[in-house]
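hi!! sorry for the late reply, been swamped w classes. u asked for the two structures so here they r. pasted raw, havent cleaned anything up. first the sequence of the first protein and right below it the tokens
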Amino acid sequence: MENVSLFSKTIENIKNEIKKDIVGQDDVVENVIIAIIAGGNVLLEGVPGVGKTRLVRSLGKVLSLPFSRIQFTPDLMPSDVTGTNIIQKDENGRMQTVFQEGPIFANLILADEINRATPKTQSAMLEVMQEHKVTIANKTYPMAEPFFVLATENPIEQDGTYPLPEAQMDRFIFKLIMDFPTVEELANIVKMTQLTMDETACAVVDGPTILAMRETCKDVPVVDDVLNYAMNLVAATHPEIEGANDVAKKYIKYGASPRAGQALITAAKIRALMHGNYNVSYEDINALAFPVLRHRVKINYNAVNDHLNVEDVIKLLIKEVKR
């Protein structure tokens, strides 16, 4: 009980500090914090200038973690991301091979416009995003924990981009949408940046605290009814399985992977503690269904013809699946 109170208070302190640098975007901020504690990665979609880079830089300050930014471009090579072996002379003048770390060796990584890199370079991110380690020349280098990748992509400009493969999309625990600010929020952003362009948030936690919070969340109970509901929701995205629901048969081409079920429960435990609850509720599952499923579910032409997007289909699935 005391741990729950301390957990939610710590999260509130983190949010309050981030609010010093980020105007609005409360859901995005909350879900990014959930992802960091869960040990997952986030794909963030938004037009330029809505504060994606500023969010990660602010998080680095608040969490006292090293921050690294990688600008993905078509000419970027895998070694530009992971690092490479170079030849140097030692103190005796003999040549030796030394590993030079790439920008991926940090706790918080901003992979800016990740869909601008070629598939070869995108594939360099697969191992590190899933296993938190990099293998170069048959030698493996582990990442410092906590390790978190926030990748961004622009929803408007698609010329010169390379769609992310399904294997990589599935490695993101969430896909979040950063909406354009309201007029009032826009005015507050302008006022804030007129004073200073630098982040003003202060450190409130550190890496070991985040890892301890991660361990605390593992003990949050999930009753069988809620667990079954979450798994039924993931299974309901598959039109090919026996007993598939009408929504999936009509509107879905491909369903979510088992990672969606893992992400849903892991994140729901953290969300429950964030809101001061001692167990996972149906509300936690429904709230997280959108960021967990929106990049894992592929809709078909029937959905497009009926003017439905992924969000609309997920809403229909939530109505369809019985508690």
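now the second protein. again sequence first, tokens right under
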Amino acid sequence: MSTVLLKNIGTLVSGDITEPLLAADAILIDEGRIVRVGRLAEFGAPVCDMVIDCNGTTVTPGLIDSHCHTIFGDYTSRQNQVGFLESELHGGVTTMISAGEVHLPGRPKDPAGTKALAILAAKSFNNFRPGGAKVLGGAVILEKGLTRDDFAEMAREGVRTVGEIGLGSVKDPQDAAPMVGWAKEFGMTVMMHTGGTSIPGSSTVTAEMVQATGPDIASHVNGGPTAVSLEEVEKLIEQSDIALELVHCGNPRMTSEAARLSFEKGALERLIIGNDAPSGTGVVPLGILRVICHLASLTPISAAQAIAMATGNTARVHKLATGRVAPGLWADLVVMDAPLGSVGGDALAAITAGDLPGVSLVLVEGRVVVNKSRNTPPATRMAVVGK
């Protein structure tokens, strides 16, 4: 691993919803982690293996997709497509989080099978980085018959997430709540389907059901793809501390209304952003960026705050050592600028206008994995990699 310096940063987005912008123009990375953030003039003369001139553009934490339906490898049977995870990396997404390997053909639905699937997927993605992106795979789908010992074993073997509750045979809060307790006991983050039925075998879930079950995340409150009412979202905001997920493959009107309500209620730190793809809606490589643009252009939420919802907020809920630009965290970073022809003068202004930014560089743990995105519009100014 090498020492990397990012200099000449025009705008630095922190990923911290409480302080979304940092007064800094340089980042120093060593052994894949951020070691210093500040003014280059104060760094002295660091010896670096690589210097990245950001050319006055914007740097953000690597985006996190909080809701991705992986299977194995970089393939989805839902849309019969290869390479969808690497393609999402070209949209600035450095970490994808499985919401359950529900699309696996012949998915086992007995306790032993669902446990084995979660363990295998978690171990597989721990060893496989599509294009360099990190995938948190192996989100166990709750099936009747799972025991506390099963959750203890899964946690020991690397399973960190419970997929959307409601996709398996466990749907009733009375059945799910004990399993949620076991999962949390062993450090797992728990998601729960919220809203109308999405696929055959899933179920409609209300705010009351979510509250009675007690997950960490109310998945796709704006619809997956059918949304709960705004009154239901208000219940979750006012009567719980559960994280609220907004997804690309949801209801666009509810995306705006739920975000606006969260802004008014002072609950922005609880909003996280996901794709909810691959799905019937398709594969959406730029879905996370599109939700960020939607929020920043159509609601009172700023571009930097929206980016925090797709970075630091999600990392906090899932207990990940990334998502913010801060010493000690993994150097997962995106360099971006306004796209050619945008009315915005920089990336944040373009996003506020509703334009997708141009991604010029993506780093995962301090290593350049994308040098000019193949999916976003071209950036007006490009970062330059040198020594």
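hope this helps!! also noticed smth abt the second:
DSSP finds eleven helices and 22 strands in the chain.
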